[in-house]
Amino acid sequence: MPTRRFTFFEVFQRNSDGSLTPRRVINLNGVTFGPGVAFGAGVSFGGIDLFKYLNHDIAGDEENGILVIKGFYERQIA
Known about the structure:
With 78 residues, the protein is mainly beta. The chain has one domain. It is 5% helix and 47% strand. It has one helix and nine strands; from the N terminus they run E-H-E-E-E-E-E-E-E-E. It has one helix at 8-11; strands spanning 4-7, 12-14, 20-22, 26-28, 31-33, 44-45, 48-49, 56-63, 66-74. Strands 1-8-9-4-5 form a five-stranded mixed beta sheet. A two-stranded antiparallel sheet has the order 2-3. A hairpin with a 5-residue loop joins strand 2 and strand 3 (20-22).
């Protein structure tokens, strides 16, 4: 299956306290986590602070029900 492109908020939700929570099980640089995990800015998963990518799209592959994040795209504003 080819790598798909997701908007950031298709994969993560922003909580009322400003934290983020995955909408599904994801894997980022070998770290797997999913719904129920809330985190704030400055927290790294697999060496990545996801808050730095809030305005980016996500490149990902589906593997056994897990979204494996492969990278981030700069969002193009038309």
